[in-house]
Amino acid sequence: MPAHTPSRTVPPCVVVTGVSGTGKTTTARLLAARLRVPFADADDFHSPGNIAKMAAGIALSDADREPWLISVGHWLRDRRLRGDGGVIACSALKRRYRDILRSAAPETVFLLLIADRELLSERISHRREHYMPVSLLESQLATLEPLDPAEQGLTLHADRPPDALADQAVAFLTG
């Protein structure tokens, strides 16, 4: 369900957001390829300390997240200034976190992926090469704030295949 439809004259900057297990990275990669824009994974912007905390099952505080979000915002700003757009997979679960990203790149569009707790838990428990343990799912779900109607973005249910989600996002962004 769209919160607000963007109008585009240059390639968009898109943040594919949601809790762990929604398929953010896969969907973001597919969307970037379809839009022919650069892709990034915000997990790569985390400090070693943040990664160690999450791997140990410790939820990040807002103070832990702020430098990370600022780095992600700079990536978005740089894409916008270059005029080449970009898609990044980034949890950005709270409106406040998305505001930090928008402060660097105001025209950023958010694609929020949501899913049922059981599906998310199953997906996370089957991951082999990711530091995010299933034990942090509850804290992420408690932190998640839906897109506000004033935010440019779209909310999609991630029980559908990533290809279908990327296609729906392209239609939203280019329609």
Automatic annotation (TrEMBL):
Substrates-to-products reaction catalysed: D-gluconate + ATP = 6-phospho-D-gluconate + ADP + H(+)
Source taxon at top rank: Bacteria
CDD domains attached to this UniProt entry: GntK (cd02021)
Keywords for this protein: ATP-binding, Kinase, Nucleotide-binding, Transferase
Enzyme class: transferase
A Pfam entry, by short name: AAA_33
Record flagged with keyword Nucleotide-binding: yes
Enzyme Commission code: 2.7.1.12
Entries under InterPro entries matching the protein: P-loop_NTPase, Therm_gnt_kin
Pathway: Carbohydrate acid metabolism
The family this protein is said to belong to: Belongs to the gluconokinase GntK/GntV family.
PANTHER family (alphabetical): GLUCONOKINASE-RELATED (PTHR43442:SF3)
NCBIfam families from the UniProt entry: therm_gnt_kin
Name of the protein in its database record: Gluconokinase
